[in-house]
Amino acid sequence: MRKSSLSKAQRNFQVFNRNDHVNQYENLEESSIEDKSGSLDGNDDFIAFDNSSSEDEDDKEGQETVLGSDVGEEVLPTVNTDYPWILNHDHSKQREIADWLTLEIRDFVAYISPSRQEIELRNKTIRTLRHAVGKLWPGADLQVFGSYATDLYLPGSDIDCVVNSKTGDKESRPSLYELAHFLKSRKLATQVEVIAKARVPIIKFVEPNSQIHVDVSFERTNGLEAAKLIRSWLEQTPGLRELVLIVKQFLHARRLNNVHTGGLGGFSIICLVYAFLNLHPRIVTGEIDARYNLGVLLIDFFELYGKNFGYDDVAVVVADQRPCYIRKSDWSDLRLSGGSGTFNLAIQDPGDPSNNISRSSFNLRDIKKAFAGGFDLLTNRCFELDTATFKDRVGKSILGNVIKYRGTLRDFNDDRYLVANSAIIENEKYHKRRSRIVHDQEDVFIDPSESDGETLKEEQDSYLIQEIEQPPKKRRQTKSVNELMGVPNEDEEDDYNPLNRETTESSTLKNATVDAQTRRDYWLNKGNSMSN
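== polynucleotide adenylyltransferase ==
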C-alpha cells in the first residue's frame, strides 16, 4: 500500500490525528533480507529472562545475532529477536484483525509461561529456604506469596516470601541480621541486603544455585491472604491471567512496574484488570466472551486507564468479589489522608478497606501516558495491517508494536499442569490450618481468628490448570474503516445496567466488539460522572 493512500486513510480515522504519543517502535520491524540487529542499541525496552540480577542489559545486545547473517553458514529464516513468539505462529491470514491480536496474545502468554525445569527449580529453592528457616528458628515457617503463589510471574522474576513464627517476634532488627548471616554462612544466599528501617523490613538476596532473587519479609499474613483471593479471581474471571501478564510485561519494558520508583505493583495491576473485566459492559451482558476477545479487551483497557479514567475523583474497589468505582470523597480514610481530589491512583485493599494499595505509585502520569500510548500504537497498527494485503502481512506482529522481548529463545509449552507449584500447595495448606469455614445454604460463618476479617470462598482441594478451548468459527462480516474491530449496528441499544448482572433473556456469546466512540463515552461517564 502506497504511503499516500495510507496517509489519506489515516486522515479519516480519528485516532491517527492524535500526536500526544511517539511511536518508539515504528522502525523496529525486521525482514528476512535486512539485518537490523543494531537498531535497538541503547534501548532498555525489553525484559531479561536469564535470572540475572543485573539491570544493565545493554551488554547482552552484542551477544545476539540474526540467523543466516554470517558468511559461509547455511542461510536460515530470520528470527525476529524483538517478538519471537510469532515464530511458526503466523496469524497474518486471519480475516479479522481482532482475532489476529487475540491469537498473538495467547502465543505470547504461552511463550513466557514456565517450563517444567523452571517450576522445579523454583520449588527446590523454596524447599531449601524453608528447611533453613526451620533449622534456625524451630516453630517458624517460610511461606510464598506474590506472583509465584498465583502463577502470574514473568520468567526471571523474584520470589516473595514471608517468615511467620509462633512467637511473632521475628521482624526485629536482630532477627533480620541473624537470618541474613545464617543464610550467607551456609552459602544459601549471595548479594545479601538487609533493609531494616523500611516500613516493611525485608531481606533481599540471590539464591546461588538457581540465581533467583528472593525477598523475605516477616510476621505478616496479608500477602498470603491476597494470594488465595487472587487465585479465586483467576478461577472466576476468564482472560484475567492473559491480560495481567501482558500489562505486567508492558510496564516492565518501560520500567514502570517498580513500586520503589513510583511504578505500578503487581497487586495493583491485577486489581485494575480484574475491575475492568468485571465492569466491562459487553462482558457483563454476556455479549462477548473474554477468552475470544483478548485483543479488543487489551485495547479497551489501555483506552480506559490511559485516556478516560477520572483519577482525580474516582477510586477502584474490589472488595467482596464485586468490583466497583466509587467517589474518592466517599472513601473516608482516603479523604482524611489527603488523597481525595488529587491526581493519584486509589485502589482499596480488599483485605483492609482503610489501605490504598497503590499509594506508592507516584509516577502515575507516566503510567497513564504509557497506557494512552499503548492504545494509540495498537489501534494504529491494527488499522495499518487491516488495509494491507496478505502478502504484506507475513512476518508482521501487532502485539510487537507495544511489547518487545530479548533473551534466550523459549518454547511454547505451558508446563504448569505437569509440575505442581509448591508455593500454591503450601498456601492452600496454610489456609486449611488457619480457617474454619462452615457453609450453610444461606449463611457463611468465618472463624473470628481471621485477622483481616475478609470473606473467603470455599477452600479448594487443588489448583487446576485447564487448557483454553478453541473459539468457534464465525461467519464473515463486512466492515468499513470505522468498524475496524467489529461494531454492532448504530441503532443497537445498550441496555447494560452495572447494578443488574442478569439479562432478561439468554443470549449466545458472540465475538462482538464496541464502537470506539461508544467505548469512550461509556468509560468517560463511568469514571467522571461520579464527581458531579
